[in-house]
């Protein structure tokens, strides 16, 4: 079974992994949960969580992948052979594959919105945007309730993702991310420069970096989001790590991923809050009632009310679409790599087959945002989540990702031999003086924080 699995170039790995990390989590979710939690302290806890919990687990996942050069299931099985639990550890990898499957089904629905609004933005820019027109929130609500349209854009996004993954690790994933990530960087920079001159810029910074009181629930949400935004807890970084060249440095690449992901999240906040704080106080309150939909209800109004808005609005949506695409690629690749390595499927068959299955699972998600009252009101878990979409996101964000992260931390922190780990981390890097710090974070800080999250979830606190 010695098929050539493919290998990323040095820069290729970093860009692909950064592409996975930067996504809707940075541009859609982070700004709105930051807004909902009143910025400042929430951002601070998030930064600490990325540094003390996220970064060590990132290192562990990439290390497990590159050591074994295998998909998560085989990777955990191989390394598990020498530790307590043995081959049962493949369940940790299998959990990742299942998580990826569910995550992709609803993530692609939101990703589809960004494509729709990109088209919409071009239309507004060309034909003109009626600033006095009907509220965009109504329009957005109508869009959500339009079943066929939701399914169509969900399908478009899955098809794009499948197309890239079918082309393979180098010609598909590496080439796409090498093209899209720099474009994304330039667009974001343009938007950032533009925000310097908006009247709300100063207030946006103050909002983001002031330090005030913070309740425990918000702290938990910050920790949970650190996992989501770094693509941890479901084997995505194990899978990408398995394609990493042996002469690349795992610590340096991991640092780059964490730093770039965080910078983009902060920039997205600055861009969005600058626009938002430029609106007079009185109008702001109503605007924010539905903070989760800011991106699609508030921003168009604001874009078209400002200089260069005609150019910036469509640019912004294509930016979000690119960010989402490089993330969905990584999620699909986890499932595909499992089928290719373990089940012996051809990539050209595995990618479309998984795509169709994910598309089908995504249909009830897409219809649960208003199109189908039954699906929209479905509450299999009680009050914590309403509708298929919410239920999936709740299960993945609050349970599956933290559990996956916990298993990885226990596996690499307590079970794997330090000799093997040091060898892998120093391969392509040289001496790694922070090894002890890393191990401590993995053994104690990560697991304790994750158990705390799971305990909070059991208590009924949702931070999806
Ligand atoms: N990190 C991406 C985001 O912020 C989402 C994502 C991609 C992800 N791959 C993942 C989340 C794997 C968890 C696990 O949007």
What oligomeric state do the depicted chains represent? single chain
**The CATH topology is what?**
Hydantoin permease
Element order: H for helix, E for strand: HHHHHHHHHHHHHHHHHHHHH
Percentage of residues in DSSP E strands: under 5%
Largest sheet: none
Task: Name the structural class.
Answer: mainly alpha
Low-confidence stretches: none
Question: What is the C-level CATH assignment?
Answer: Mainly Alpha
Would you report the number of β strands? 0
General form = globular
Which architecture does the CATH hierarchy give at level 2? Orthogonal Bundle
Number of domains: 1
Calculate the terminal CA-CA distance, rounded to whole Å: 41 Å
Count of helices? 21
Helix content: over 70%
Radius of gyration: 21 Å
The molecules bound to the chains, other than polymers, are: tryptophan
Mean pLDDT: 92
Characterize the structure shown:
- With 464 residues, the protein is an all-alpha fold.
- The chain has one domain: Hydantoin permease.
- The protein is 76% helix and 0% strand.
- The chain contains 21 helices and no strands.
- Helix 3 (41-68) packs across helix 4, helix 5 (90-127) packs across helix 7 and helix 5 packs across helix 17.
- Bound molecules: tryptophan (TRP).
- Tryptophan (TRP) binds at residues 20-21, 23-26, 228-229, 231, 233-234, 236, 327, 330-331, 401.
- Tryptophan binds next to helix 1, helix 2, helix 10 and helix 16.
